[in-house]
Write a structure and sequence with these properties.
alpha/beta, single chain, six-stranded parallel beta sheet, globular, binds ligand FNR
Length: 187
């Protein structure tokens, strides 16, 4: 199984990107989690540019989402919601609507880190709603990481064992939700 992690922060020392990297270390056997690297190259959504062919960066985003069995979207909180760069990427990935969109029916988990005391909870709640409207299968629950500047070292390694355990459980739930249903052998 392959999970694509999308961090909603472009910042080099982003706590959210560090959280996505930590998730890659905690996946169960047989599950690979890869970090999407192209967010900063995606142009602002323009329906005219999406008419026949789409920008190369957008095609790449859509292909990477389509190839993944599940997504883990990790968001900062900006003014109580999702950063514009992340919303913009979701808008591109939500088109064409219904069965044609890369996001349609995709199993998605959300997580988030902020330096505040609520761990980007509002952003994650908005993100779950946005992804649901775009047709994704969003798994229950958020993973708020509060006071993120205290949870990672200067190299971005996760220091907090409780956060690591919550993250592992969150990834396990995502994997279980994305796994194909077992085939019944009953006659
Ligand atoms: C923030 N931050 C923030 N934090 C929060 O908990 N609630 C909020 O509403 C906001 N609003 C906000 C707006 C803007 C424009 C910025 C730049 C920042 C702080 C934010 O959580 C903190 O900068 C995180 O570290 C950003 O995530 P990355 O870049 O570290 O992943």
């Amino acid at each position: 199984m392959r999970i694509l992690a999308i961090s909603g922060s472009l910042r080099k020392n982003s706590h959210n990107t560090a959280l996505a990297r930590a998730a890659a270390e905690l996946t169960p056997a047989g599950v690979e989690l890869e970090l999407y690297q192209g967010l900063g190259s995606i142009p602002l959504y323009d329906a005219d540019a999406d008419a026949e062919s789409s920008p190369v960066a957008v095609e790449d985003l859509r292909e990477q989402i389509a190839r993944a069995d599940a997504l883990l979207v990790v968001t900062p909180e900006y003014n109580g919601s999702v950063p514009g760069v992340l919303k913009n990427a979701i808008d591109w990935a939500s088109r064409p609507p219904r069965g044609g969109a890369a996001l349609w029916g995709k199993t998605v988990g959300v997580a988030g880190a902020s330096t505040g005391q609520y761990g980007a909870l509002w952003a994650q709640q908005d993100l779950r709603r946005i992804l649901g409207i775009a047709g994704a299968r969003v798994i229950e629950g958020e993973l708020p990481v509060a006071r993120a500047h205290e949870k990672f070292d200067k190299d971005g390694s996760l220091l907090d064992a409780q956060v690591a355990e919550r993250l592992r459980a969150h990834v396990d739930t995502l994997v279980a939700e994305a796994a194909p249903a077992p085939v019944s052998l009953a006659a």
